[in-house]
Amino acid sequence: MTILLAVFLGGLFGVALQKVGATNPQNIINMLRLTDLHLMKAILLAIGASSLALFVGMALGWVDSGHLSIKSSYVGVIVGGGVLGAGWAIAGYCPGTGLGAMAEGRTDGLWFVVGGLIGALVFALVFAAMADTALFGSLGGSVAVARTAGNPALVPGVPGVVVAGAIAVVFIAAAALLPRYPGAETS
Fold first, then answer.
1. 170 CB-near residues (< 8 Å, 6+ apart)
2. What is the total count of domains within the chain?
3. Looking at the domain assignment, is residue 161 inside a domain?
4. Could you give the angle at the alpha carbon of 69 between the alpha carbons of 53 and 73, nearest 5°?
């Protein structure tokens, strides 16, 4: 049943990506060039609303925080984030939007996904040789917005829903105030 829920929610996510235009690489490139910010508005709103819903769900006991996995920080995360960001800027896709583009029949989306799978395979094959290198050197552990199993809270003594709520409000306000086109009236 869990896998069916994951497939259903993933499908909804893909539909949402398609509806806001995130499966078109030109829209992503325009966002990264800061010439059309409608995707940035959608991303900020989605992050704010979903994080608020998550932490309200945790506060009400609907979501078990034990299901959240906070990864430790290490050098490879910074390097990997840089590689992902560069690939996103060059291709106009990130993993989710690439899958959405492939699902809507875009050939470039298909090649992006194939390239990502080949990259994941190469990483899996060379991981054992890299596991003891500086790429996996710790940067000091992990921290969460709310206290979870084994992770300290971002702001000790303040409930996670309050901290997440404040952050969510900032993201939602930024989405509301950001103009679609720089130099244009706020939409």
1. 48
2. 2
3. yes
4. 115
Q: What is the pLDDT of residues 1-47, one digit of tens each?
A: 789 988 998 899 989 999 999 999 999 889 988 999 999 999 999 99
**Other residues' Cβ atoms within 10 Å of the Cβ of residue 5:** 9
Note whether 29 and 134 are within 8 A (CB).
Answer: no
What local confidence, expressed as pLDDT, does residue 98 receive?
92
Range of the domain at 94: 71-141
Contacts with 25 (C-beta within 8 Å, 6 or more apart), sequence order = 91, 92, 93, 97, 101, 108
The answer to whether position 6 is within a domain reads no
For 116, the enclosing helix (H) or strand (E) is helix 107-130
Which of the pair, 56 or 72, is modelled with greater confidence?
Answer: 56
